[in-house]
Design goal:
about 450 residues, alpha/beta, 8-stranded mixed β-sheet, 4-stranded mixed β-sheet, about 35% helix, about 20% strand
Amino acid sequence: MPIATHDNGSFWFDSLESLPEPDKPTSLPRATDVAIIGAGFTGLWTAYYLKQRRPDLSIAIFEAVTVGYGASGRNGGWCMGFAMGIEDLLASPETRQVGIQVLRAMHETVDEVGRVCQAENIDCHYQKGGTLTVATLPFRAKSMRDRVERFHSMGFSEDDYRWLPTSEAKRHINCASNHGASYTPHCAAIHPARLVKGLAERVRGLGVAIHELTPVINFEPGRIHTEVGSVDASIVLRATEGYTDSLSNQKRRVMPLYSMMVATEPLEREMWEEIGLTQRETFGDTRRVVIYGQRTLDDRLAFGGRGTYYFGSERKPRISPEDPMLNIVEQNLRDFFPMLHDTEITHRWGGLMGVARHWRPSVLFDRETGLGSAGGYVGEGVAASNLAGRILSDLVTGEKSDLTRLPWVGDRAERWEREPLRWAGAKAIRFFGDRADRKERDSNAPSKLWGGLFDRLVG
């Protein structure tokens, strides 16, 4: 049976109790106080907190396809207490304190997502089992132990970051190569589609209008223009992440990179006794071409890896299950857990995520024009979007809070380079990362050449 055009092709959408076809509006309201472009996590969290602070505001969300169609409904399901850019802040003495503030805010955000899910009765399979980063190469263990010690020197405790020696790490996760692991409890496994759909239902209950099948073409101060019609709005907030390039006046603001995922059939209890992950810990390792995984509530392994970039920031509606990049992800899963060599893979999918030119999230709001935006999570947006949504709602309402003093605020990125430089740069990052990872696997030593080139391009 062909996949419906509003189905993003993921296991997460496939496992929902129902996926009703969205209704395309025949007309739109003439005006609204706040117009939000994009019904993913960022747009929905922003609307949720705005309504908490200002119930009198009329808010409308405009979505090109359906709620959660993009990264919010097909990601790896990590609600993680970390984000891109924090490591750089912590590395410099001049920015270390603000880095610590962002990191603590991210830790608290994992709990905030769980609090909202409980308060609003959103059953997204939230379980705060923490996350494991495995040293799959012996030489990696020392640098990972040193990293844990650096966190301790900055005021974090064993309750925040802990090194697990090999024997203990293997009890948590029995992967093919395990020379110890760092562990933090500040991460929860979730079902992303259930979270985004449940959040949308709650937001609608608060009086927010969500217009699906209503692509926004462009916007300006005081107005948005959609395929259905134009709407006046005192405040316009962009929450489009990897789809930002679809807006005619936002070209090269955010680069769409692709992530690929597979999911196994439900595994038997004996298999899980061999693998571990008894608390549904999320997991990954330190390779540059990132991998990530979780144990789902119905006992599957959902496993992903970074994909590619398509020339001209092409945005594919869905990734074919036959895409060759998915073969690489599936093989990485079987290499990581050799006991899964005969296990059936039931789902293969992929989709785009958003990357700003400075490779970190940002939240922008200009009170004079009423224009704002949030995003740039580099694939780590489940929790970061909640924090960004709270920041953006504070900025819109004029709330002076600790959150509005975080360095994400006003951190505007430059536009990406024009083609073919953008395509060449993205391909070079993938190539250097892959070569560095291979070199280190073969030599059990740092790859100074390829790793150095990778670090220079990513920054």
